[in-house]
């Protein structure tokens, strides 16, 4: 095989490997918070809990994606705040959950809210 053919062959293999990695399933950690009675979004404890969440991507390098925000829906079944964190795999999720920054945020939220959690595998669509 000529050098040019070898280069094209290796480039093709590399491209396939890269596509496989980028389309790989990742762990999505979804948390929906419902504030406890007597707690409002103006409460300093809520503001502190939100700030602790917002610090997580800078504190925990294995976070691949991070989305969080207050719910704007007025429906009675709606939660008050949502969080979505994406990490590479289940092992990384364990490391994320045990990280001191996550524990501090969880402690702050535990004081002011009840929550539901879903951890699931999903593929993040590639951006064009």
What does this structure look like?
- The chain is α+β, with helices and mostly antiparallel strands and 128 residues long.
- The chain has one domain (25-122): Alpha-Beta Plaits.
- The protein contains four helices and four strands.
- A four-stranded antiparallel beta sheet has the order 2-3-1-4.
- The longest helix is centred in the N-terminal third of the chain and has 20 residues, at 3-22.
- Mean pLDDT is 86; it is low at 1-22.
Q: What is the secondary structure topology, with strand pairs?
A:
Layout lengths: L2 H20 L2 E11 L8 H16 L5 E6 L10 E7 L2 H9 L1 H13 E11 L5
Antiparallel strand pairs: 1-3, 1-4, 2-3
Provide a compact summary of the structure:
By secondary structure, this protein is an alpha+beta fold. The chain is built from 4 helices and 4 strands; from the N terminus they run H-E-H-E-E-H-H-E.
The helicity comes to: 40-55%
Radius of gyration of CA atoms, rounded to a whole number: 20 Å
Q: What ranges have pLDDT less than 50 throughout 5 or more consecutive residues?
A: 1-22
Q: Tell me the CATH architecture.
A: 2-Layer Sandwich
Structural class: alpha+beta
The strands making up the biggest β-sheet line up spatially as 2-3-1-4
Reading off the top of the CATH hierarchy, the class is best stated as Alpha Beta
For the terminal residues, how far apart are their CA atoms?
Answer: 34 Å
Question: What spatial form do the alpha-carbon principal axes imply?
Answer: globular
- Major sheet summary line: 4 strands, antiparallel
Count of β-strands: 4
Tell me the strand percentage band.
25-35%
- Would you give the CATH topology? Alpha-Beta Plaits
């Amino acid at each position: 095989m000529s050098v040019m053919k070898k280069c094209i062959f290796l480039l093709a293999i590399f491209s396939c490997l890269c596509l496989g990695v980028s389309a790989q399933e990742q762990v999505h950690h979804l948390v929906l918070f419902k504030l406890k009675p007597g707690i409002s979004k103006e409460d300093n404890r809520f503001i502190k809990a939100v700030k602790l969440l917002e610090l997580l991507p800078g504190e925990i390098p294995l976070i691949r994606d991070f989305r969080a925000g207050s719910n704007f829906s007025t429906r009675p079944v709606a939660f008050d705040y949502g969080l979505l964190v994406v990490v590479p795999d289940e092992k990384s999720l364990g490391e994320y959950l045990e990280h001191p920054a996550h524990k501090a945020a969880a402690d702050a939220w535990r004081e002011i809210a009840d929550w539901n959690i879903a951890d699931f595998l999903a593929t993040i669509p590639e951006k064009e």
